[in-house]
Design brief:
The chain is α/β, with parallel strands linked by helices and about 110 residues long. It contains four helices and four strands, in the order βαβααβαβ.
Amino acid sequence: VSGIPGSGTDTIAEALGAQPNLFCAQEMGLALQPWSSLAEAAQAVAQGGIGEAGAARRASLALLEQKLAAGTLEMLGDKSDYYFLALPQVAALHPAARHVCVHRSPQ
């Protein structure tokens, strides 16, 4: 999920992350890493190899652990306001990925 700051990327990421089969990280840089599998990416996040520390990260990791334990995780996402600057790189790393780009109207 990417877009201009203030365009609603947080809300969209939260809505996506509320789905039982999807974990949507916030600002963890997942899309910029060359993962070979969902399990590899989820493990790196769970082990703290990606992203910043803080209460939001701890809550996010707790949710990821719940979904992994339940065996429902099928998709992993990440949100950054600035992924739109690296869309060619993200597309090359993850050709099967789906992208959500949010645009904010100035009106």
